[in-house]
Design brief:
Elements lengths: L14 H22 L6 H8 L3 H10 L2 H5 L2 H12 L1 H22 L2 H4 L5 H4 L8 H32 L4 H26 L7 H34 L14 H4 L4 H15 L2 H13 L5 H8 L1 H20 L2 H21 L4 H22 L3 H4 L5 H30 L12 H28 L11
Helix pairs in contact: 1-9, 1-10, 1-11, 3-9, 3-20, 5-6, 5-9, 5-20, 6-9, 6-11, 9-20, 10-15, 10-16, 10-18, 13-20, 13-21, 14-15, 14-20, 16-18, 17-18, 17-21, 20-21
Organism: Ancylomarina salipaludis
Catalytic activity: L-lysyl-L-alpha-amino acid(out) = L-lysyl-L-alpha-amino acid(in); L-alpha-aminoacyl-L-arginine(out) = L-alpha-aminoacyl-L-arginine(in); L-aspartyl-L-lysine(out) = L-aspartyl-L-lysine(in); L-lysyl-L-lysine(out) = L-lysyl-L-lysine(in)
InterPro entries: MFS (IPR011701), MFS_dom (IPR020846), MFS_trans_sf (IPR036259), MFSD1 (IPR052187)
Length: 461
């Protein structure tokens, strides 16, 4: 419910209170993104120990989005968020996230792979796929539902506490914390397996971290309950928008700004997150980095975004220019992947490409997510974020599978021990970047015609 007037200050007007709320939900997303990428630096170990092919690994990575796409879980999650509220939705789906992560961990244990609960059943069908892969996919699919809807909920929380204030900066800082989870995963996951390379160890740590994240969300719930009580008690508060109706979901697709920002989201993120699933192995195969250090090179990406996203968010709060910055970020995305695809395997090129990608990965999210409330009324905001995340998940499901299949196809007949050729998979990423640039251009054109105000500052004077 949008608020047009308030006679008294609420807890959200306290800087310390709203930034503390941001801290709690940002830590939650750090734990979620840590587990999301925890397997990425372990692709080589999965090939050697579990017998997974590159296509199998890509199928596992794509399973993250299967339920979100085919069962429309993000749509239902968005409707639940708009109808049942932030506290219930967040708590329930963080719980789903933890359950899925546990199944993912269990799939990597000796207990399961030596005939534990569920092994024989999973080994009785689709025998071309190993039981460990199937169990991991079940877990990762459940986890994907939980973490994506948790992300939608956190976006709604930030709008609730920061709308008309430092919203882009707040979203930038939240994204920086999430990228911090990626950094920890890429850098620490190979080391956490130990000298004996036990894959389940980092996953066990990830499950524990998620439980701590749930406890942090409980702290947010107490703050949010107090805010709702203050708003309800203020008789001068006036609702400016109609209550949400399920039929409102269809109205989103009559909004050209929504359609374009959804397309930009799926194209841009399909060229980033699926890439990060394969990037540590790319660093080993093309650039000759040791497996233990490959994740650290990829970790340059979240390090850059942790620093730059809040800075760009603060700039857009005060100066605007979000539509233009989304175009610039898409252009940098093309440049980065072109380096990976076509330039020689010199380590200097690897560092340069990761740094450029870090700028792109800071520009576009910092501009895109705070733009959604300018395009969509607040009563439909939860469903709008959910629909955008669902469309994004189509790319997150298909592109890892496609990258794995193209990688196997491009290296068919390769001599054992020879380095894999990543040129063709990276050409797919370049194509995504070009398409994202075209969509960002049309979004800027539509913004000028419709007057969304994407290039205007976020802070209301």
């Amino acid at each position: 419910m949008a608020i047009t007037k308030a006679a008294s200050l609420s807890i959200r007007d306290s800087k310390s209170a709203r930034w503390f709320v941001l801290l709690t939900v940002s830590f939650l997303m750090l734990t979620g993104y840590f587990f999301t990428d925890i397997m990425s630096p372990l692709q080589g170990m999965l090939r050697d120990q579990m017998g997974w092919s590159n296509s199998s690994y890509g199928t596992f990575a794509g399973s993250y989005s299967v339920l979100n796409v085919f069962c429309l879980m993000l749509i239902f999650g968005g409707i639940i968020l708009d109808k049942a509220g932030i506290r219930f939705t967040g708590t329930f789906f963080v719980g789903i996230m933890i359950v899925g992560a546990f199944f993912n961990y269990y799939a990597m244990t000796d207990t399961f792979n030596n005939g534990g609960l569920g092994y024989d059943f999973l080994n009785s069908f689709l025998t071309d796929y190993k039981p460990s892969l199937k169990m991991a996919m079940i877990g990762y699919a459940l986890f994907g539902v939980g973490v994506e809807i948790a992300g939608i909920t956190v976006s709604r929380i930030i709008v609730k506490w920061f709308k008309g204030k430092e919203m882009a900066l707040a979203m930038g800082l939240e994204m920086a914390c999430a990228r911090g989870g990626m950094l920890i995963a890429f850098s620490a996951s190979p080391w956490m397996t130990g000298a004996d390379k036990i894959i389940s160890r980092p996953l066990a740590f990830g499950v524990i971290l998620l439980v701590i994240g749930l406890l942090a969300f409980f702290v947010h719930n107490m703050m949010d309950k107090r805010l709702d009580a203050e708003v309800a008690a203020d008789t001068s508060v006036v609702a400016s928008e109609e209550e949400f109706k399920a039929s409102d979901v269809f109205l989103l697709f009559k909004n050209p700004g929504f359609i374009l920002i959804s397309l930009l989201c799926v194209l841009f993120y399909s060229a980033v997150f699926p890439f990060t699933k394969f990037a540590p192995d790319l660093m080993v195969q093309k650039y000759g980095f040791a497996e233990e250090f490959s994740g650290m090179i990829v970790g340059l990406l979240p390090i850059g975004t942790m620093i730059l996203t809040p800075i760009f968010g603060a700039f857009m709060d005060k100066k605007g220019k979000s539509a233009s910055i989304m175009m610039l970020g898409s252009l940098l995305l093309i440049f980065s992947h072109t380096i990976f695809a076509f330039l020689p395997g010199n380590t200097g090129f690897a560092f340069a490409a990761m740094i450029v990608l870090g700028f792109a990965f800071s520009f576009v999210p910092a501009a895109m997510w705070p733009s959604v409330p300018k395009i969509i009324p607040e009563s439909r905001l939860g469903s709008a974020y959910a629909m955008i995340f669902m469309i994004q998940n189509v790319g997150l499901m298909l592109f890892p599978m496609l990258l794995g299949a193209v990688l196997d196809s491009a290296n068919e007949g390769l001599a054992e021990g020879a380095a894999l050729n990543y040129t063709e998979p990276m050409m797919l990423m370049v194509g995504c970047g070009i398409a994202a640039l075209v969509v960002a251009f049309f979004l800027r054109v539509v913004d000028k015609k419709r007057g969304y105000g994407l290039d205007l500052p976020n802070i209301q004077e």
